[in-house]
Design goal:
The chain has 537 residues and is α+β, with helices and mostly antiparallel strands. The protein has helices spanning 2-16, 52-61, 117-129, 169-172, 183-189, 245-253, 268-271, 280-283, 314-322, 326-334, 365-374, 395-406, 419-427, 446-449, 468-478, 483-500, and strands at 32-37, 66-68, 74-76, 79-84, 90-95, 150-154, 157-161, 203-209, 213-218, 225-226, 229-230, 236-241, 259-261, 286-301, 339-340, 386-390, 412-416, 433-439, 503-516. The strands form six sheets. Strands 13, 14, 15, 18 and 19 form a five-stranded antiparallel beta sheet that branches. Strands 1-12-9-8 form a four-stranded mixed beta sheet, sandwiched between helices. α12 links the parallel β16 (386-390) and β17.
């Protein structure tokens, strides 16, 4: 109670102070958007934009060359236009000349300077091969030319050279790792740049109380406009870090926060019906926004396991996929937030997704029993108990599936692990059967299909799946610039995964956003990005 009261008082005091160029009149109500994050921000440096909490905060503070709209289409940002050479190796970006870094003491007269092409060379090289060991270096590794991949033609022309064609490259450049940062600030603050961010985004940094709150204020010099009106509309943003989701839910219901993302079994039935509709008692206070989220949930099966591991038998893997009811699982366990994974590993929301061209598994217990019999285990007779590794968060889901498998004769023992321990076992090949999920790094099916490319280690290939035909299709897709042809290759790969069943396909995730009434301009998107530049309160 004391902590909540303190933060509320602090936020009022904080935003009442205003800032340069801001309207400080006590008669003007400040439009501050307040949201709660389940996990704390660990860095405000784009080079460390790995977690959702970091990505959301960094998106408020920075921009890159390009950005995604709500339909996952690539749109201009700091780059007003671009061209790609016929051989797919050279990307030339023409930069806007009206984008400025936030005002900061690192600049002459503390006034933010104009962004130029050299800033992108510095920012990209820092992520790629910088001494900071950015977790984002992989986005360039093996993709950009080894020598001088980032080049300046003039102040407003920036070039990226690839080692080989890679069609999803523009999508990768929308990632927050690719945000532009000023060399002056990085050199002045060193490792403390993580808490002294200087970007170009719609909001600028004010204060960060680590593990408690983050405060941002409006960037009055922001370059983007909507219908001729300068963005953003909000005066500021306040983020509170609350680890207990139930506490976040209570704050939302009490009207103390404007937004909450995600669900938990302890309160889901207080918000949603079993059909996934917002309950009438909440509808006067809240709006519920649900949309496809590029995340595939699955149970993975390691392929090079022990000889006596029953999961090395394809018919058993297929039987498990037929042996449980995905629709009922989502209805009873997730209040219909999510869609059954009936079409392979690539989720709904991607342009290449096709339920018609990649037909996966439905609930068919008779077919499951038939496959078990063909595998030599009629009704599960003599089939050893299978151990499934999971975390506490997914215990109920795994228990539901295991009980349905009992009906076809398959016995499963669920072993709970800490998240870090489970990831380590998955990485080291010590998890023959495990609960996993894969979230898109960029909006292209390649981001999902790379999980099964035979030449990839774990991660991402935790199942250690190897299939020569799959690998050939994957490599062909990387060099295919025609979207229609590339999507056909993706669908062929998904059909191989359906046939070979290296995973039990569970569901395609959906976002679950709860927004206080009176908030407008908050749009849904399949990458679960909280963009606030067009929000009004």
């Amino acid at each position: 109670m004391y902590k909540t009261a303190f933060l509320f008082f602090f936020s009022i005091l904080f935003f009442a102070c205003g800032g340069e160029g801001e309207n400080n009149s006590s008669n003007v109500e400040r439009k501050v958007f307040h949201y709660i994050q389940h996990r704390s921000v660990t860095s405000l440096d784009p080079a460390f934009a790995k977690s959702q909490a970091n990505i959301w905060a960094i998106d408020h503070l920075y921009n890159g060359l390009v950005q995604l709209d709500d339909g996952l289409n690539i749109q201009p940002s700091i780059a007003k236009s671009w061209t790609i050479s016929e051989d797919g190796l050279t990307y030339t970006f023409n930069l806007r000349d009206d984008v400025f870094f936030h005002d900061n003491e690192v600049f002459p007269n503390k006034k933010g300077r104009k962004v130029v092409a050299e800033d992108f060379v510095f920012s990209f090289e820092r992520v790629w091969k910088g001494s900071i060991n950015s977790p984002g270096g992989w986005i360039f590794n093996g993709r950009v030319a080894e020598e001088n991949p980032f080049q300046v033609v003039d102040n407003q022309t920036f070039v990226v050279k690839l080692a080989k064609p890679f069609r999803p490259m523009l999508g990768i450049l929308t990632m927050q790792y690719c945000s532009v940062v000023p060399k002056e600030a990085v050199e002045k603050y060193g490792t403390d740049f993580r808490k002294n961010p200087v970007g170009t985004g719609p909001f600028k940094f004010k204060r960060w109380l680590e593990n408690q709150s983050l405060f941002l204020t409006k960037n009055i010099n922001y370059f983007e406009k909507e219908n001729g009106q300068a963005l953003p509309y909000l005066d500021g943003v306040r983020v509170s870090f609350v680890g207990d989701r139930k506490t976040a839910y209570l704050e939302l219901i009490a009207g103390k926060t404007d937004f909450m993302s995600g669900l938990e079994s302890s309160f889901v039935n207080e918000l949603l019906s079993s059909e996934g509709e917002l309950l009438s008692k909440q509808a006067e206070k809240l709006t519920f926004l649900k949309s496809p989220f590029l995340n595939s949930e699955y149970l993975g099966m390691r392929f090079n396991g022990e000889a006596n591991n029953p999961l090395t038998n394809k018919k058993i893997r297929q039987a498990l996929n037929y042996g449980f009811d995905r629709e009922k699982m989502l209805r009873t366990m997730r209040n219909k937030v999510g869609k059954p994974a009936n079409s392979g590993f690539t989720p709904i929301g991607l342009p290449s997704f096709s339920a018609d061209k990649a037909k996966g598994y439905n609930f068919n217990p008779d077919k499951a029993r038939q496959l078990l019999s063909e595998a030599g285990f009629p009704n599960g007779k003599n089939l050893p108990t299978i151990e499934l590794l999971s975390t506490k968060d997914y215990e109920d889901l795994c228990t539901f599936i295991a009980r349905q498998w009992e009906d076809i004769g398959v016995k499963v023992q669920i072993e709970l692990e800490e998240s870090a321990t489970l990831r380590e076992k998955m990485k080291n090949g010590q998890a023959p059967f495990f609960r996993g999920s894969w979230i898109a790094d960029y909006p292209d099916a390649e981001s999902f299909l790379t999980v099964f490319y035979g030449k990839n280690p774990a991660p991402p290939n935790y199942t250690q799946f190897k299939n020569a035909k799959f690998d050939a299709l994957y490599e062909k897709a990387l060099n295919e610039n025609d979207d229609v042809k590339r999507y056909d290759l993706y669908q062929q790969m998904d059909n191989i995964l359906i046939e070979e069943a290296p995973v039990v396909f569970l569901f395609y995730d959906e976002t679950a956003w709860f927004v206080k009434k009176g908030i407008t301009g908050l749009s849904k998107n399949a990458i679960n990005l909280l963009s606030l530049k067009r929000v009004k309160k």
